[in-house]
Write a structure and sequence with these properties.
Chain lengths: 56, 420
């Protein structure tokens, strides 16, 4: 048995980051998850990220 | 290197904000005490705006103020005068003042006089008229004007005399107590109003006024849970004004709305406003009104959130959700989220439900832009048409563009100085 299959034989501790729909799908299957409300800096706006970088 | 300069400047700004001692001194007449106030000056909430761009409630409040001042006899005359060049419009914020909702201040209006005892600067605000059909929500019927005259001729003189007998009142201590009694200092002021009455009554009864007048004044204050709002606002204003113009600071010193635009000012960028369209308030409307009746966000009362109370202290005021909507858990979450965009935890404004954690204080434009988290603001909802008044209360967020524009200006300022 490969290690990845071993992983799925045990109870998983799942942390969801980013897209919330992934979390919703797991919740519908009654799987316990912890959701991290994470977004990329400045919602990925490159112009704003470059402004922020100039201040670092 | 530039980051160190910013951090040092922000540390200094936060010390100034946290060390502020807003103190109620007196009541005066706007024209006599507010700097550069004249008989034909009308102060308003939010960033600068011209008559033609003003929304209904701001226009309504100006119409009412011109009638109240005797500069116009009716609505028609008031509109003609208001749209002429004879009236000077200027933000309250340009005169050390703040005003809730329309925020209209005219020359004869009585105003609270506060001083930040640590730094010596003053602030001013009108007295609160109550809820419903009131000038600050754009109503200007006879009952509104009559109430304003009563406030000028009885409420203000009586409170002025009581205050003289009492002496200065440390409002910071009172706000600290109010937060521990279920207020957040913006949309819930029941505890603060009660504390103020308790403090003033022993002196109010010693004034030379008739018992009938004293009872009338006490009943007016008792019937208006928001009476204390017009003291928390100038208390926050005097606190934040002391922190203006600190070079390299990215902390916001002003947020305000005029019903058309939302504006911010940043300590390190002086008196420049950065504005964007005012949002629509998400909340509970009074029976008979729908979302179509609501005016966009209006008022200087968001100075509360700027100073670390109001929406930022929602966790202290679970009962407020009955007024603005949502659940008690939402109230806690609103506060928790604001720690992500602020520079410090308040040293005296504490939240019992969070094990007396200090409120999130000092909004950093860098954090707002980087996290995408906008300040949560508690506010009232005015009807979009002049003459009607308040139609509800709720929560609103500012436009992200103000913060992005301020950040860009901040970077450009540093580039001009060859620092980056």
């Amino acid at each position: 048995m490969t290690r990845i299959n071993e992983l799925f034989q045990q109870e998983l501790k799942i942390i969801n980051m980013g897209l919330e729909s992934f979390n919703e799908n797991l919740k519908k299957q009654n799987i316990k998850t912890v959701r991290v409300d994470w977004k990329p800096p400045a919602k990925g706006n490159e112009k704003i990220i470059s402004l922020l970088d100039k201040l670092k | 290197m530039v980051q160190e300069k910013i951090e040092a400047a922000n540390k200094k700004v936060m010390e100034i904000i946290l060390n502020g001692q807003p103190t109620l001194l007196d009541i005066g007449v706007a024209e006599e005490v507010i700097p550069q106030m004249t008989k034909k000056t009308i102060l308003h909430a939010g960033p600068p705006i011209k008559w033609e761009d003003m929304s209904g409630p701001l226009r309504g409040a100006i119409i009412g103020a011109l009638i109240y001042e005797g500069l116009a006899n009716n609505e028609k005359e008031a509109v003609e005068l208001a749209s002429s060049r004879d009236i000077t419009y200027d933000p309250c914020h340009h005169h050390n003042a703040v005003g809730p909702m329309a925020g209209v201040v005219s020359s004869s209006m009585p105003v609270w006089i506060l001083q930040n005892k640590t730094y010596g600067n003053y602030s001013y605000c009108t007295l609160n008229e109550g809820l419903g059909k009131v000038l600050r929500y754009g109503a200007y019927s006879d009952e509104v004007i009559k109430r304003l005259k009563w406030m000028e001729n009885l409420l203000a003189p009586l409170l002025k005399e009581a205050l003289k007998l009492h002496g200065p009142i440390n409002l910071k201590i009172m706000i600290v107590q109010a937060l521990q009694m279920g207020d957040e200092g913006h949309n819930r002021n029941r505890a603060g109003t009660s504390l103020l009455i308790r403090e003033l009554v022993p002196f109010l009864i010693q004034t030379r006024f008739d018992n009938k007048d004293k009872v009338e004044v006490l009943q007016f204050i008792n019937n208006n849970d928001h009476f204390f709002l017009n003291l928390t606002m100038p208390a926050c204003k005097s606190t934040m004004d002391a922190a203006k113009n600190v070079e390299f600071s990215t902390i916001i010193t002003t947020m305000a709305r005029n019903g058309t635009e939302f504006g911010i000012r940043v300590s390190g960028l002086g008196d420049r406003w950065f504005t964007g369209p005012a949002g629509i308030v998400d909340g509970l409307l009074f029976p008979g009104y729908t979302a179509k009746d609501a005016n966009p966000d209006i008022g200087d009362s968001v100075i509360a959130e700027t100073a670390g109370i109001g929406g930022f202290a929602m966790a202290a005021a679970p009962a407020i959700v009955q007024f603005v909507g949502g659940t008690a858990k939402d109230a806690v979450n609103f506060t928790l989220k604001m720690y992500e965009i602020t520079a410090a935890e308040n040293n005296v404004y504490k939240i019992p439900a969070l094990d007396f954690r200090g409120t999130p204080t000092g909004i950093d434009i860098r954090k707002v832009v980087e996290t995408g988290i906008l300040p949560s603001i508690n506010t009232g909802i005015a009807h979009k048409d002049p003459g009607i008044g308040q139609v509800g209360a709720g929560l609103v967020k500012p436009p992200m563009s103000c913060f992005e524009d301020a950040l860009q200006a901040f970077v450009e300022d540093l580039e001009t100085k060859n620092l980056i």
